[in-house]
Write a structure and sequence with these properties.
The chain is α+β, with helices and mostly antiparallel strands. The chain has a domain of 83 residues. 40% of the residues lie in helices and 19% in strands. The chain has one helix and four strands. It has a four-stranded antiparallel beta sheet, with helices on one face. Strand 3 and strand 4 form a beta hairpin. The radius of gyration is 24 Å and the shape is elongated.
């Protein structure tokens, strides 16, 4: 009588490992782009918080703040912050700019928001490869 053997041969296991490696290699570029788009969320959220703080500041002072220190807004400024925020403002308008490097190349990812809540990606670091 033949003994029933269970399990996989080394060749079968190696074929599965090669297939998984090929699939991982093919999916990496789309995963990298997805991760960079997720990183852009930090800049958009920071600018949205600044917009809200500017509207509150305008309601109480009848002018927009020209520096971040005048606004009561908490932004991530530690080592994990990807974006540097700058702010310009006067009595009728303001523009907040978030600029950061998402992928360690020369191009910066730059987002702006104004008093009309117009959020724009003026320079896209993802597409400027």
């Amino acid at each position: 009588m033949r003994e029933l053997r269970r399990g996989f041969s080394l060749l079968e296991v190696m074929i599965v490992v090669v297939i998984i490696g090929i699939l991982a290699t093919l999916s990496y570029p789309s995963l990298e782009a997805y991760l960079q788009r997720a990183k852009q969320t930090e800049g958009k959220v920071s600018l949205s918080a600044i917009y809200t703080a500017q509207k509150i500041y305008f309601a109480t002072n009848q002018t927009y703040a020209d520096t971040l220190s005048k606004l009561d807004v908490q932004l991530d400024s530690g080592g994990s912050a990807r974006y540097a925020i700058t702010l310009t403002g006067d009595s009728t308008s303001f523009t907040a700019t978030a600029s950061g490097n998402l992928d360690d190349d020369a191009a910066l990812d730059i987002w702006t928001i104004d008093q009309n809540k117009t959020l724009q990606n003026t320079v896209n670091d993802i597409s400027s490869e």
